[in-house]
């Protein structure tokens, strides 16, 4: 699988290199042909339905014109909406325009109110969008939201920043496509922040460029390949001590649920022994999950346990002391929730974390990340990749920046964008499950990078599996995730070992 993601600047450089080797117009022709093939696939047996193509003033519009010409040649009723007042077309877009005009493509300059289409194609703007959509382009993008047919975006949904996954410009809007065919290489903004809502299903069309000639990507999609080497089948000659201990430290008064969810997730993800070390009053046993061993946090011996600090931990002096002790230890750490808020409030604790070196995974959601970087959550979301990079660099830890298209970053700048998961996870406690799962993988000997990448991917895949069974996205609960995590993890291990007797 090609999992590489390139920034707009990188794609421009790749494009320039390719152009130098090819006859003028070749890339646009290939883009139009590939998009037309995809359109036919999306139409399936309904080739009698008309296709509407919106063509903008730049080369994205040129792709749409080229595509319209190809579709018309195959007998499709293709209509191009080419808003009036277009500026001068590039030479290749002008050629595409002439080809479309020469065939049976219909041209309109306003959207008919009662038009019924089998497919609408968004070829308004691609990677050349320089400012927020305005005027008629903004109106057209908004109208596409009401289409009852598939909407195929060419290269990038118009209005979306392909680097960040956010609409371009303050108060900007972007087309919401059901499908995107993106050219030359995949782009991070199609997979994170608002990107998944705007891009829909993403297909990459390399336009004949050999992927082997591409430079090092800005980021990659998270996939099982990242953590495959850690997917080990269990040995008969093993015991609970072989799979590590996880201690979840949290649970200040009135906040027992969060550490319990993390502890259950650790258990279902295969940790040998799981402790819940509570700062506040706590029961002696979890009657649903009696395997969890309760301790009072002050009495917990860290030993060589993997520590998951933060779920429901609060901001007391004791919480701060435990965090400082954990940071000074050599134990593998997952820092979540209140542990992150304490870190954000204390330059001294941040310095200890940075001094610590490897072995810590931080799992902030955007607001926690904002506190850590001293900015707003909106600033984090405006460029999630930059935020994840900066946090990993400043803390020296592996950073998981949560939310749709979760990012996993490490201090050397390596970045993953997670493609699994769904909005069923937008429910209280799902982050606690992620922290516990990550702790269990660390306890079983996975290095921090693989544990973070694996936990994020598996957590999302578990939620996807629940949705497939009708359990969510609406009403999915965090408590349902651990068993789904277990199912996914066992499947991955089975598949990794396939072929072995
Ligand atoms: N990369 C590749 O290899 C290949 C790329 N190809 C295709 O080319 C696309 C990139 O083409 P592109 O550079 O012409 O940019 P594009 O997105 O069409 O828009 C730029 C135009 O819009 C204008 N403009 C900008 N913002 C505006 C706004 N808010 N409101 C109004 N106008 C605005 C801007 O003019 P400006 O006013 O800024 O001077 C300019 O005229 C790429 O996404 C892909 O589809 C393929 O053909 C083959 C291979
Ligand atoms: N819309 C979404 N799509 C995909 N994943 C999501 C979405 N919303 C939340 N998540 C995931 O759910 C988890 C929520 O974590 P967090 O915000 O810490 O919640 P809590 O504190 O309630 O546990 C994270 O792993 C996040 O990436
Ligand atoms: K587009």
From TrEMBL:
Record field: transmembrane: none
Keywords in alphabetical order: ATP-binding, Isomerase, Lyase, Metal-binding, Multifunctional enzyme, NAD, NADP, Nucleotide-binding, Potassium
Co-factor binding details: Binds 1 potassium ion per subunit.
Residues the record lists as binding K(+): 60, 122, 158
Domain of life where this protein originates: Bacteria
Enzyme Commission numbers on file: 4.2.1.136, 5.1.99.6
PROSITE patterns, alphabetized: YJEF_C_3, YJEF_N
Domain YjeF C-terminal span(s) in chain numbering: 223-492
Residues that bind (6S)-NADPHX: 59-63, 126-132, 137, 155, 258, 312, 365, 432
Domain spans labelled YjeF N-terminal: 11-215
SUPFAM superfamilies assigned to the protein according to its UniProt record, in alphabetical order: Ribokinase-like (SSF53613), YjeF N-terminal domain-like (SSF64153)
UniProt family annotation: Belongs to the NnrD/CARKD family. In the N-terminal section; belongs to the NnrE/AIBP family.
UniProt subunit comment: Homotetramer.
Physiological role: Catalyzes the epimerization of the S- and R-forms of NAD(P)HX, a damaged form of NAD(P)H that is a result of enzymatic or heat-dependent hydration. This is a prerequisite for the S-specific NAD(P)H-hydrate dehydratase to allow the repair of both epimers of NAD(P)HX. Bifunctional enzyme that catalyzes the epimerization of the S- and R-forms of NAD(P)HX and the dehydration of the S-form of NAD(P)HX at the expense of ADP, which is converted to AMP. This allows the repair of both epimers of NAD(P)HX, a damaged form of NAD(P)H that is a result of enzymatic or heat-dependent hydration.
Entry protein name: Bifunctional NAD(P)H-hydrate repair enzyme
Organism: Massilia hydrophila
Name of the gene this protein is made from: nnrE
